[in-house]
Design brief:
The protein has 279 residues and is α+β, with helices and mostly antiparallel strands. It has helices at 2-26, 66-74, 148-155, 178-232, 251-254, and strands at residues 44-49, 56-60, 81-85, 89-93, 102-103, 126-130.
């Protein structure tokens, strides 16, 4: 009787231990799936990495999982590689991270936000998948290890809302184009200079032309006066002229055709001089 009671007690203890272990294994979250050779058409885990390599951040998923990131997002975009990090972040790319970044699976211990039994990376660790698009996928160079971890984690939010991380681009300030204004000023200055020079030349031309016309008119008046003087020396009776007579000539002798003597230059015949003679 005592032996039966001891047997039942041992059996109950073993059953309790098995149930506790089963319950513990059932509710354990964030377990990294062991890596395996890639297969076409099926997402396969390729390991836990400490760098994202050349993978680009795609989005934050409220219900993230291996199939959500690898199939619904990356494979749909034609990318052969997918990666999850921080439970809810999804990355896509064309190459695996560098082999030097491969670490122990225990570092990828963050349960996926859509299915927490699976591990979707960890804090600054990535669970990498082959999406099944192609088997020929290369690893990135070791140069990609420089700052990929800090740049990706600090620039992407960790909220559980399904939003796409905004791509912030800072537009470079445009340089002021000073060449156009300088050229415009030079052209304006040249035009003004040409207009001023043309005005000066035109003013000189009109001044010289007016002075020349004045000289021609003056010369014409002098010639007219000379012609009038010459035409006025014709004897009386000629057409259109006037006679010029010397007042010192004897009026009687002036009307004679034939001179009867020489004219004394010192005699003024215009005035009669009384002379006294002895008769």
């Amino acid at each position: 009787m005592m032996l039966q009671r001891a047997g039942w007690t041992a059996l109950l203890a073993a059953s309790s231990a098995l149930a506790a272990s089963a319950a513990t294994s059932t509710f354990k979250t964030g377990v990294e799936e062991p890596s395996a050779p890639p297969m076409l058409g099926t997402p396969v885990v390729q390991g836990c990495f400490s760098s994202q390599g050349e993978l680009k951040f795609d989005s934050i998923q409220t219900f993230n999982s291996k199939s959500k990131c690898a199939i619904d997002i990356c494979l749909a975009k034609g990318k052969p590689v997918a990666g999850t990090m921080g439970a809810n972040q999804c990355f896509c790319g064309d190459k695996y991270p560098p082999k030097a970044a491969l670490v122990n699976d225990s570092n990828c211990n963050a349960g996926c936000s859509g299915f927490d039994k699976e591990a979707c990376g960890g804090s600054f660790f990535w669970t990498i998948y082959n999406t099944g698009l192609t088997l020929a996928v290369k690893y990135s160079d070791n140069n990609a290890l420089s700052s990929s971890v800090s740049s990706s984690t600090t620039s992407t939010p960790t909220s559980t809302t399904s939003t796409t991380a905004p791509a912030t681009t800072t537009a470079a300030p445009e340089k002021k184009k000073s060449g156009g204004s300088n050229t415009g000023g030079i052209v304006a200055g040249v035009v003004v200079a040409v207009v001023v020079i043309a005005a000066i030349v035109g003013g000189v031309f009109f001044f010289l032309r007016r002075r020349r016309n004045r000289e021609i008119e003056e010369e014409h008046r002098r010639n007219a006066a000379v012609n009038a003087f010459i035409s006025g020396s014709k004897p009386p009776g000629s057409s259109g002229g006037y006679s010029v007579t010397d007042s010192r000539l004897d009026p009687v002798m002036a009307h004679r055709r034939i001179s009867n003597g020489s004219i004394a230059d010192n005699e003024d015949y215009s005035r009669r001089i009384l002379r006294v003679t002895n008769a």
